[in-house]
Amino acid sequence: MLKAYFSIRMRAAERSPELGEKHISGGERIGSKSQIEPIVSQLLNKASNHPRGDADFIQITVEKIACDRILYMPPLEVTTVETASIEDGRSEARKILTSVGVSKHALGVAFHLLGSIQNLRGAIILNSKTGLRLDDRGLKGIRVSRIDWQDANENLNERVREALALASKVANSPFTIAELCWSDDPDYVTGYVSNRDIGYVRITPLKMEGCESGGRIFFVSDEVELESYINYLERVPVLIRRD
Ligand code: WAQ
Ligand code: MG
Ligand code: MG
Ligand code: MG
Known about the structure:
Blueprint: E1 5-16, E2 20-32, H1 36-47, E3 57-65, E4 71-73, E5 78-82, H2 86-99, H3 104-116, E6 123-127, E7 147-149, H4 158-171, E8 176-182, E9 191-195, E10 199-204, E11 215-220, H5 226-235, E12 238-240
The structure holds pimeloyl-AMP and magnesium ion (3 copies).
């Protein structure tokens, strides 16, 4: 019998007078039946004591996935660029994204969005040439889900492990030109740019400490088949493993 796998997802929010609902934290994991309990506990822990605030709503979803649909792929290669200032960090990110075909205009849109939105739950899909937003999800965005490492004991900290798995899944789609990310957590200033050719390029710092704006931008090609792209990101189960 094939081993059963479960998608285990968390989202935490706080009621906020200004924002209505403020996004605190989210998480997505895949595990076998015996891993459900420790994973739920890890996700609950992640939602609690969060620097974005005190969650007063936490939702955990556990859902069986068809294991014959799981795709396996290797992680992107990781490099780190340290710069002297946020300005330098962002200009490094722009330089790299330009080199893989993202237009100046699309970069302007992307940096404006990530520098101003403080309450984004998922990612924004932008046409890499026109900078037009292609998804219609507003602040919900597109949440990459059904993603994890096959082996939990990768020697990386939890945040990097999570972000690298996500970026590897995103980069694996032929429609992805590149991704730009920095955290919405006020205490985390490292971000990254990634795609299948450049790998996962961590850049630090990309934002100011104390700042709650951040998110993810997926730059896509003109050829994108939006529905199938979003279905891949949200629903196709992916386990990351080294070859
Ligand atoms: N799918 C799509 N977008 C997401 C997801 C997801 N599964 N998870 C987070 N986001 C978006 C959402 O807009 C969040 O507000 C934003 O990204 C930031 O999420 O190598 O920690 O979990 O040192 O705060 C990158 C660098 C850290 C890690 C990113 O993001 C490293 C990070 P956070
Ligand atoms: Mg989060
Ligand atoms: Mg995260
Ligand atoms: Mg966050």
